[in-house]
Every structure is written in structure tokens, then in C-alpha cells.
Design brief:
By secondary structure, this protein is α/β, with parallel strands linked by helices. It has helices spanning 8-23, 27-42, 46-51, 59-73, 78-82, 105-113, 133-141, 154-167, 225-234, 253-262, and strands spanning 84-87, 90-93, 123-127, 146-151, 171-175, 187-192, 238-247, 265-272, 278-285. A hairpin with a 5-residue loop joins strand 8 and strand 9. It binds glutamine. Belongs to the protein N5-glutamine methyltransferase family. PrmC subfamily.
Length: 287
């Protein structure tokens, strides 16, 4: 790239510019990404990078960094390159087999936690667990909760199990398509962040989404196919009053509330994410 040996700080500066321009990130985000890539390439901490910024990078260091940088410049999500993403203060392993955990989903976790008393045994079901981020967080934050997580993709299920083990969470995992393997079982609380993007939505062809499993994102012509199936099935698997909490698209709250009402749920409510978008809806079964 530079043709002569560069310092650590010099490499990071060049990478910051390139990442910023290629991905349309502001300087602060681009610098953060450059640091994350370098730390991963060299297996060092962010503090090491600061302490060693005037060191001249070795040829192998430069090559390892350039290889990761090229992947990022090609649009690969940084979480897949480093193999991890932070969620609710914990590090989750991720791979292209799972959706990358999103900060919006922390809202769903907060709402669920508010409904799981710390000192009681509550049964909780997380449908479509992906990386396991929701189920594992709930299990770790509420040691008395009994958390079950369902996932139909074997690769995702294996990864979720690994995350639970690494993080020391006790979660019962089950392979299945929503409720297919849960005949006769019911829960106090059911949560899900299902696929909710319309099949033809151009966002699927942009940014990180291009690289994520389409089955975790897309859900029919109006994006509501899986939410419909889920709301349909939930009724038979909730203990009364039982609560269903669902993440959905910013423009789907009205449609989801209509589905909830016709599915036998009372007084649906909606909560907004930090960006101010309606993001999670919930309701209890009507009497
Ligand atoms: N439950 C996982 C998450 O929230 C996966 C969701 C999905 O694949 N749609 O990240």
C-alpha cells in the first residue's frame, strides 16, 4: 500500500480513510473499525494499539491487517470478520449462519426482563434464537427463569449452544420451526425477534444485510408471514395471562396489533427503540 514500512498509527490512519470512504462512515466510526480490525489481525487489545502506535509494523503484521481490511472494504460485516458482537454487555460469537445481534433487540430484552421477577420461577420461550443472544441474556440476568430457545437452522443452533456454554448460561435448546417441537408445552412469556423484512425490500441488498442469512431477515411479500405464523401459534403455548413480546419493523406496529387482536390477544402495546421507531409490540391473552 504505502510501499515502505509504516507505523501502527500510520496504518490505522490510512485504513480509517479507506474504510470511511468505501463504507460511508464518519471518521469516528471508521477509526473504531480500523482499530477493531487491527486488534483482531494481530490478536492484541485496543490498549496495545495505543501503546505501540509509533512502532513500525512488521511485514507479516501489515499483511494480516491488509487481508482483513480488504474483506471489510468489500462490505463483509465487521462482526463476521472478527467472529463476535457485543450484546447487552456480553460478547457473543457470531458467524454467517446467524443474524448479527442488533442494539434495537436490547429493547426486547429490557421489556422481557421487566416481566420476569428475579425471585420467581418464570418459564420463557425465545423463538428463532439465532446466536442465542436473547435467550442467553435472559437466562443470565434472571437465574431463576427457565429459558427455552428454539431454532430451525442446525448451524445457528450449534452456535447458540456454544454461546450458552461459553457464557455459562443455562438454556434448554430445541430444534424446530417455531412451535413445531413444543406440542403440549406452555410458557409464561414468549419472545421473538423474527424475520420481518418484505422479500422485495431493497435493504436486503445493502450493507451488512447482504451477508446475513436471508431466512433470518425476509418474511414474505409484506414481511409479516412469520409474525402471522408466530402469533397464530402462540395462543396454544401461553399460560394465562401469558405475554407475547415481538420485535417488528418500524412500520409494522398497526399490522402486528391487528394480528394480535384477531389472534385472541388483548390491548396490544408498542414500545419505541432508541432511534424513536416503534420496534416491539406485546400483548396478553384475553381472558
Ligand atoms: N434472536 C436472534 C436475534 O435477535 C436472531 C433473530 C433472527 O434471526 N431473526 O439476534
Amino acid at each position: 500500500m504505502t510501499g515502505h514500512a509504516a507505523t501502527v498509527a500510520g496504518l490505522l490512519d490510512v485504513a480509517t480513510d479507506r474504510v470511511g470512504r468505501a463504507l460511508g462512515l464518519d471518521k469516528r466510526e471508521a477509526r473504531l473499525e480500523a482499530r477493531v480490525l487491527a486488534a483482531h489481525a494481530w490478536q492484541v487489545t485496543p490498549a496495545w494499539l495505543i501503546a505501540h502506535d509509533t512502532d513500525v509494523a512488521t511485514a507479516p503484521q501489515t499483511a494480516a491487517f491488509d487481508a482483513l481490511l480488504a474483506r471489510r472494504l468489500g462490505g463483509e460485516p465487521i462482526a463476521y470478520i472478527v467472529g463476535a458482537r457485543e450484546f447487552y454487555g456480553r460478547r457473543f460469537e457470531v458467524s454467517p449462519a446467524v443474524l448479527i445481534p442488533r442494539p434495537e433487540t436490547e429493547l426486547l430484552v429490557e421489556l422481557a426482563l421487566a416481566r420476569i421477577p428475579p425471585d420467581e420461577t418464570t418459564t420463557v420461550l425465545d423463538l428463532g434464537t439465532g446466536s442465542g443472544c436473547i435467550a442467553i441474556t435472559l437466562a443470565l440476568e434472571r437465574s431463576r427463569a427457565r429459558v427455552t430457545a428454539v431454532e430451525r437452522s442446525p448451524a445457528a443452533l450449534a452456535l447458540a449452544r456454544r454461546n450458552a456454554q461459553t457464557l455459562g448460561a443455562s438454556v434448554e435448546f430445541s430444534a424446530g420451526d417455531w412451535f413445531s417441537d413444543l406440542t403440549g408445552r406452555s410458557y409464561d412469556l414468549i419472545v421473538a425477534n423474527p424475520p420481518y423484512i418484505a422479500d422485495a425490500d431493497p435493504h436486503l441488498a445493502r450493507g451488512d444485510l447482504r451477508h446475513e442469512p436471508v431466512a433470518a431477515l425476509a418474511s414474505g411479500a409484506d414481511g409479516l408471514d412469520e409474525l402471522r405464523r408466530l402469533i397464530d401459534g402462540a395462543r396454544d403455548h401461553l399460560r394465562r395471562p401469558g405475554m407475547l413480546l415481538l420485535e417488528h419493523g418500524y412500520d409494522q406496529a398497526d399490522a402486528v396489533h391487528a394480528l394480535l387482536r384477531s389472534g385472541g390477544f388483548a390491548r396490544p402495546r408498542c414500545w419505541h427503540d432508541l432511534a424513536g421507531n416503534p420496534r416491539v409490540s406485546g400483548a396478553e391473552l384475553s381472558k
